[in-house]
Amino acid sequence: MKSVSTKKILVIGPVLAAWAEIRVIEQSLGFIPHTLIFIDPLEDFSSDENRVDFYNKWREKLTVLQPEYDAFIGFSLGGVILQENLDLLTDKAVLLFSSPTFIDETLSNRLNAVIKLAREKSVFDAIREKNRYVFSPYPVPDYVINLTNDKIAADRLATGLEYVLGVDSRTKLQQTPTKVMHLIGEQSQLVNRDNVVAINNGGLVVVPNAGMRVLQNNPSYCVDAILPFLNG
């Protein structure tokens, strides 16, 4: 077994209009005593790519990458990508954050509302709509969104969320021998018990007093759950 200090972990992020927003997530994982490599789930982004091609490309990529890493972390879309490829990761630890197992009606309606705003109005309206749910039950913090290209940002946001729609990883999660821990917020307005199933080998953690951003909403609870999992 590798020592705690030598583990290498791949972190696949969520759908972000601008990848620079990943800095907040990087900071929230600062307590993990391992080498973390962050990767944009939309790094090969093409608005013309369909959902099947997107997931096939990620399967090819993970097939190549997985021998390099001891564990994998996925946020939202990143977690969906990992769920869809658990059979490649049977000897790894997989940590998921707020990643739907399947899409229920409420989540579908809310994601589609964001997608419609991004496609038909503006990326800033879409981000505001998304953040309304992401940060609930807490206020949306004041921050500046720096976008170098509004159209690309809108395409990233809309297309990335479209990749989430239609997901159904229930069978994979219930049958996998892979060591999985999934953290969801008790008060999340997006990913919650209505669209997540318990994992066959345990590992579903419902974080109290938290929405989608469990690490920011209840950090001490998350740290106590995550460190033994990753260090084990």
Question: How would you summarize what this structure contains?
Answer:
The chain has nine helices and six strands, in the order βαβαβαβααααββαα.
Note down, in words, how this protein is organized:
This protein has a 6-stranded parallel beta sheet with strand order 2-1-3-4-5-6. The protein is of the alpha/beta class and 232 residues long. It has helices at residues 22-28, 51-65, 77-83, 105-120, 123-134, 150-164, 170-175, 214-217, 219-231, and strands at residues 8-12, 35-39, 71-75, 93-97, 179-185, 204-207.
- Quick one: how many beta strands? 6
Listing every helix as H and every strand as E from the N terminus to the C terminus, the arrangement reads EHEHEHEHHHHEEHH
Judging from the principal axes of the Cα atoms, what is the shape? Answer: globular
Using the CA coordinates, give the radius of gyration.
17 Å
Largest sheet strand order: 2-1-3-4-5-6
Computed structural class? alpha/beta
Count of DSSP-assigned helices: 9
- What value does the average pLDDT take? 92
Terminal residue distance: 9 Å
